[in-house]
Write the C-alpha cells for this entry.
Amino acid sequence: MTGVSHLLSRISGFFRSRHPWAVWLALALVWQGAIANPLPVGDLAVLVDPSGTETIDSVTSALASLRFTPVRGAFNAGYTRNVHWLRFTVRASSPGDWWLEVQPPFLDDLRLYEPVAEAPGSFNERRGGDRLPFSAREEPHRSFVFKLQMDDTLPHTLYLRLQTTSSSLVFLKLWNAGEFHGAANLEYGGLGIYYGILIFVLLFNLVLWAWLREELYAWFCLHVATSMLLTIAANGLVSQYIFPEHPAIANAWLGVAFAITLSAGAPFYRRMLKVERDQPWLFRLYRIQVILPLALLPVLLSDYYIEAARAMISLLLLMLILGLWLALRIWREGRREGVFIAAGNALALFGTLGMAVSLLGLYTNDFFMFHLRQISGLGNIIAMNFALAMRFRELRAAEFQALIRVQASEAIAEQARAAHREQGEFIAMLSHELKTPLAVVDVAVQALERLNRANDTEVSRRHGRIRRTVGRVNNLVEQFLAKERIDDEGLTIRRAPTDVAALLRRVAEESADAQRLRVTAPAVLTIAADPALLGVVVANLIDNALKYSPPETTVGVSLAPCGESARKGIEIVVADHGGGIPEALRERLFDRYVRGDNVGNIGGAGLGMYLVRRIAEMHGGTVELINRDGGAEFRVWLPGEIS
C-alpha cells in the first residue's frame, strides 16, 4: 500500500502544481516524445558474447576493440540467449549530476562499467535489472537509472553488459538530473491518466454487467483487467509498486500476464466477432487461443522463455489479422457496430505489429516500443466499448420491437378469443332456439302418426321424411355445438376409466340404421378416456359410414387392443362398402367444412371427420384413412393401459 500511496501522491502533486491547461498540453507533448531533451549517447558499438565468459578486462583490451560492431540508433538484437557488451561515450553539456537511463524496464541483468579516473584501466561495476530488489536501484524509477558525476564536458567511454531472457533491446539516454525529475513527473502523470481511463472503463462495464447480467460485458471486463496487468508489467510498475522486494515474482509477471491476456481475450473477441460452433475451423482457432498460452505458462517460467514468447507473439498477430477480417465482414453486412469493431481490431493490430517488430529485433524505435502499443491498446478498448454498447442498444431495440409485436399479437389473439366466445354464445343461443321448435315438430309428427289410424302409406312416408329432416337438422346443430366445445382453448379432456366396448355397442344400438351395423368387440375393454368425447368419435364414424354407403350394404365396426411404438392402446375400425374417398379429397378429409363433390343430396356440415381427428389428438392418438377397394375404412388408435 505504501508504494501505491507514493505513486498517487506523485501524480496528485504533479496535478496540483500546474494549471490544468498546461497539464494537458504537457502530457500531449510527452506522448509525442517532444517534451524531454535528453542527450544521446555516442559511438555506440556492440560485442556479442555467446558463451557469456567475457569480462571487462577482455572486452577493453586492444584486441577486443576490433571485435566491436558499430550500432546506429538504439541497440536491438531481439530474442536471443547471447550476452551483449555495449560500448558508448557520454558527454555532458555542463559539469554536474547526469543520469544515464536504460530502458525498457524488463531487462534482467545490467552491469555498467565506469572508468576510475584515479586508476587508469580500472572500472567500477554498478548493477541494475529487474532481477534485483527495487530498493537496490540508484533512483526509485520504473526504468533503470545510473547516476554519473561529470566533472567536465569531455567524452567518457562506458561499457554496459546486457544479459536477459526477454528481448535484447536497449535505449540509452543521458539526462540532466533536474530535467529527469520533470520528465518523470510528466511521465507518471500520463500513466496516471492512462490507467485512470482503463479503471473507469473497467468499473463502468462491471456496473453494466451487474445490472444487465449480459455475459459479453463480463468477458470484456476480463479483457480490460488482463490488459491492465500486462501494461503494468511492461511499464515496470510491478517492481516499483506491487512486489518491490520480490524481484522473481515481478520478473515472471510479464510473461504470465502476456499469456493470460492472450487467453482471456479470446472468449470476448469470439463473441464480438460472432464466431459460433457452426463455423468449426474459426471456433477451433479461438479455442487454441484460449488453451495454447495457458499451456505455455510452464515454458515461460523455464529456460525456454524465448521460444514461448515468439510462439505467443505469432499467435497474437495471426488472431488479430483474423479478427480484422471478421470485423470487416461484419461491417460489410451493414451492422452499425461493425465500424467500431473494425477500428478496434485495426488499432490493436497496428500497435501489436509495432511492438512485435521491436521485440523481434526487426526494427528499433522507442515510440513503437513504449507508446504505440499502449495508445493503440487504449484506442482498441474504447472502440470495442463503443461497439459493445451499440450492439446491446440494437439488441434492446430489437427486443422492444419484438415486445411490441408480441403485445400486438396478444391483442389480436384476445380479439379472436372474444370473437370466438361471442360466436359460441351465438351458436349456443341459436342452437337452443332451433332445437326447441325441432323437438316440438318431432313430437307433433309422432302424435300425427298415432292419429293416422287408417295407416295411410303416403301419410306415413311424409311423416318419416319430416322426422328424418328434423333429425338431420338436429344432428347438424349437435355437430356445430361439439365443434365449438372442442375448439375452445380452455377445454381439457376429463379422463376416466371407460368401457369402450360398452360405449361402442350403445352408440351402435342408438344409430338410425342399427340393423346394418356388424359390431365386433370384446365383452369388456376399459381404458382411461373422456367418455363423452369418445362417444362423439364413434357416433361420427358410424353416422358417416351409414350415410355414404348404399342402404343395402353393411358397415363393420370393430374394437381390439393394439399397441404402437412400444405403447399400449386400442383401435376402433369402421369400414363401409360405399363409393370410397376420392383421391383429391384424402389430403383435406380431416379439415373443417370439407365435403366431397360426390355426396349428392346427403346432408352434412363437413365437421364429422374434423371432430374425430381433434378428439383423437387430444387423447394422444391418431386417425387414418386406410385405402381399400369397395369402400372406405377409418382407423382410430388411442393410447392407454387396458384393463
Observations:
- Residues 3 and 241 are 5 Å apart (CA to CA).
- The radius of gyration is 46 Å.
- The mean pLDDT is 81.
- The domain at 2-185 is CATH 2.60.40.2380 (Immunoglobulin-like).
